[in-house]
Amino acid sequence: MAGSRLPRQLFLQGVAAVFLFAFASLYTQIPGLYGTEGILPARRTLRPQGKGPWQQLWETPTLLWEAPRLGLDTAQGLELLSLLGALLALGALLLPQLRHLLVYLLLWAAYLSACQVGQVFLYFQWDSLLLETGFLAVLVAPLWQPPHHKQPPQGGLAGALPHEALPFWLVRWLLFRLMFASGVVKLTSRCPAWWGLTALTYHYETQCLPTPAAWFAHHLPVWLHKLSVVATFLIEIAVPPLFFAPVRRLRLAAFYSQVLLQVLIIVTGNYNFFNLLTLVLTTALLDDQHLAARSGNSRRRKTPASRPKALLALLLELTVYGLLAYGTVHYFGLEVDWEHHTIRSRTTFTFHQFSQWLKTVTLPTMWLGGASLAWELLAALWRWTQVRGWLRKLWAAVQLSIFGSATVAMFLVSLVPYSYVEPSTHGRLWTEAHRLFGAVEHLQLASSYGLFRRMTGLGGRPEVVLEGSYDGHHWTMWFAALGPHTHSPWFTSLVLCLLQGKEPVIRLIQHDVARYPFHKQPPTYVRAQRYKYWFSQPGEQGQWWRRQWVEEFFPPVSLGDPTLDTLLRQFGFQDKSPPRARSSGNSLARALLWVRKQLSPLEAPTLLWGLILAVGAVRVVQALLGPRPSRSSPPPREEKHRPAPKKDPGAATEQAAPAPSNCNSSSQTTRRKK
Question: What pairs with residue 33 in β-bridges?
Answer without folding.
Answer: none
